[in-house]
Design a protein that fits this description.
This protein is of the alpha+beta class. The chain has four domains: 2-23 and 86-251, Alpha-Beta Plaits; 33-84; 286-398, no CATH class; 415-516, no CATH class. Helices cover 52% and strands 11% of the residues. Strand 6 and strand 7 (178-188) form a beta hairpin. 27% of the residues are buried. The model has no long low-confidence stretch (mean pLDDT 85).
Length: 521
């Protein structure tokens, strides 16, 4: 009973400012849900099927007109639905919303969700948001190996509680993860930018604890406390409820910008938006050539997650990003849908065609997400980023570039420069000493024939420079090959490879010196 009371208290606290002109969403499988007055609704429906009106059937069952209409409407919505898929949104005014929630909790409905913000009408869309009511931080801590053995209560008390700067309005065990709820005095949808800026600050602070970046939408829904999480068969439970009194401005205080900085930023942004009158429309089709890199990364990410059996939680977001990026880079809407369908076929559990076309549709005239935003939305881990080409954090790209440019401390060449020197010496030996054809050299070295041609052209046009570089490389290798420092700084397999290559290097050097007639030193 106490759990039920806390559930209703928390819901009423979140939607404290809702009036009869507002609508709140409930998302569940309505065909699976049960009516608390199911017998009365069934009798009422049977009487109406026999020819009685709703008023007459209600009167015969001692139900007033409003109650009779309410029951028959609910019965038809749940049991007379012709759609194959009955997991969908329904939006209610306050009185009906709390009535529905009570029924769902009483009947232990599996997988029932409610929207944390309210809407102008009965469609849960960004453009229809009326009141912004709360921040909900969704922690999938079980995905982190360090915390996977903990339950939600232990994770909150042992790890998270001491990290929170504000006392939460509610703490909810979602049956698998954890929700931290900060309800505040409802504000207008005009505060949407501040709302998301604060939310992003929360994410930057709690990303390492498994906060879900995909659960940061203005239209966000969370599980209704008291219902069942079908994945774990556990009840969604309120662990803590506090009657807080926040305003959204209280959370804005933690942002790293002052009001003066925000005003200056807005001024600069307005100046940039003032375009010349004679400016022509951009040809976005020129961007198409760069889309392939993003598309290949998305395919690679799907393959990685298919291999790890991660089949849910990111598919809609990935296809949405694919379509958004494709449209921004000059593809038509039909072309973007076609590209999304190709990615959808790669999933272990593909979405339906309707879901790809409707649920993954980006809004019109929308700018494409930045790489950092894509990484946050898809929750791309550090290990996954290392396997991708474009979708990497900037610091990872810089570290990989620095590693690529790092020279061997003894040989004074990068890995790429060493490989180039060794290949050209080998090509010189095979061509001029062993007299092989270019195609035969290419087959033996496993490289393209055009590369062989370019290497020979370089040796022919820069013989003295190549001799000097080859001599320096061989001398450095001879000097350090037996030193302890060389053994510590070079992998054993690489040591064997270098010592084996020395013979080819000397052969190529002897030939060049003999042909050109210059001394080795």
């Amino acid at each position: 009973m106490a759990a039920y009371v806390n559930s209703i208290k928390l819901l009423k606290k979140i939607h404290e400012g809702m009036d009869d002109s507002c609508f709140t969403s409930i998302l569940t499988d309505w065909k699976q849900s049960k009516l608390t007055e199911e017998n009365a609704a069934q009798d009422l429906f049977d009487l109406m099927c026999s020819g009685l009106s709703a008023e007459a059937a209600g009167a015969s069952l001692d139900l007033d007109q409003e109650k009779a209409h309410s029951l028959i409407h609910e019965y038809k919505a749940r049991y007379c639905n012709n759609y194959e898929k009955t997991f969908y949104d329904r939006l209610f005014n306050p009185a009906k919303f709390y009535q529905q929630v009570t029924e769902l909790i009483t009947t232990k409905q599996p997988d029932a969700y409610f929207s944390i913000n309210s809407f102008y009408n009965t469609k849960r869309k960004n453009e229809n948001v009326r009141h912004i009511n709360a921040f909900v931080l969704d922690f999938d801590f079980y995905k982190i190996s360090k915390y996977e053995s903990m339950d939600a209560k232990a994770f909150y008390h042992q790890v998270l509680k001491k990290k929170l700067c504000y006392q939460p309005t509610g703490v909810i065990d979602s049956g698998k993860g954890l929700y931290i709820v900060y309800a505040f005095k409802h504000c207008s949808y005009h505060m949407d930018r501040l709302y998301h800026a604060v939310w992003k600050h929360f994410y930057n602070e709690f990303e390492k604890y498994g906060m879900d970046p995909a659960a940061m939408l203005t239209t966000q829904v969370i599980r209704i406390p008291g219902t069942i999480n079908s994945k774990t068969n556990k009840i969604v439970n309120v662990l803590e409820f506090n009657d807080t009194d926040y305003e959204i401005q209280d959370f804005a205080m933690q942002l790293p910008w002052s009001q003066e900085q925000v005003k200056e930023h807005r001024k600069d942004k307005l100046l940039k938006l003032k375009l010349p009158k004679n400016k022509t429309h951009k040809d976005y089709s020129k961007r198409k050539i760069y889309f392939k890199q993003y598309y290949e990364d998305l395919k690679k990410l799907i393959r990685i997650r298919n291999k790890n059996n991660k089949n849910e939680g990111y598919r809609e977001q990935l296809l949405y990003i694919c379509r958004e990026r494709a449209c921004w880079m000059g593809f038509t809407i039909d072309e973007s849908v076609k590209l999304a369908h190709q990615l959808n076929e790669m999933f272990n559990l593909p979405l339906t065609e309707r879901e790809v076309e409707q649920n993954c549709k980006p809004s019109d005239n929308r700018l494409a997400c930045s790489i950092d935003t894509i990484i946050e939305k898809l929750g791309i881990s550090f290990d996954e980023q290392l396997q991708l080409k474009v979708l990497k954090r900037r610091y990872i790209k810089k570290s990989l570039y620095a590693k690529h440019k790092r020279k061997h401390p003894l040989l004074n060449l990068t890995d790429k420069q060493q490989a180039l020197m060794e290949r050209r010496a080998k090509v010189c030996e095979l061509k001029n000493v062993k007299h092989l054809k270019n195609s035969e050299i290419a087959d033996r070295l496993g490289i393209d024939k055009s590369t062989i041609t370019r290497d020979l052209q370089y040796i022919k046009t820069h013989p003295h420079q190549f001799i000097r570089k080859l001599t320096d490389y061989i001398n450095a290798l001879e000097k350090h090959k037996n030193s302890d420092l060389f053994r510590r700084k070079t992998l054993y397999e690489r040591q064997k490879q270098l010592l084996k290559w020395l013979k080819s290097g000397y052969t190529a050097l002897e030939y060049l010196v003999r042909e050109i007639g210059v001394a080795k030193n």
